Amino acid sequence: MPLAEDLTAATFEKALRSLASFSSSRGAFGAWVHRIAANELIDHHRRCRREQSDAARSAMYQVSDRRELGPDELPAEDDLADLRAAMDQLPERYRSVLSLRYFSDLDHDGAAEASGLSKPHFAVVLHRAKGALRRELDRRKVSS
User: Fold this and answer.
1) Vertex 105, ends 102 and 108: CA angle to 5°?
2) Can you give the pLDDT at residue 73?
3) How far is residue 12's CA from residue 33's CA, in Å, rounded to a whole number?
4) Is residue 22 domain-resident?
5) Claim to verify: residue 94 and residue 45 sit in the same structural domain
6) For residue 144, what pLDDT is reported?
7) How is residue 38 annotated by DSSP?
8) Would residue 131 count as lying in a domain?
9) Residues 56, 80: Cα–Cα separation, whole Å
10) Mean pLDDT per 10-residue run, the chain (144 residues)?
11) Radius of gyration of the chain (CA)
């Protein structure tokens, strides 16, 4: 049920932000909101599929600032669960820059542009985000 609530909230948030672009000449309001909801659901499933892929598992490991992995050296699912839990504890800004850089197949310049930050500013925020992630991972190791 929390997933449905999250998707519903995201749908109405997007609809509210895009309300000025709605035009009744292109269709009914209900159909417009339904399309936003369908897109949210599709995006959710794509994210889930990406998170389970070998590339995502490798990227999650790289985010934690460990060495580059070969295809036969992917981390265990437990390590990924810890990494996901640690990411969830980070501020949204840090999660966003980490996601853009490591999970969106964007290079540094593309991730900076997508975030709306200058390249130097993005680099600083990314550095701080990685540091925060490392500290959170260390905190989790100590408390376990």
Assistant:
1) 65
2) 47
3) 8
4) no
5) no
6) 65
7) H
8) yes
9) 10
10) 80 87 82 83 72 59 51 54 83 87 79 85 91 85 74
11) 18
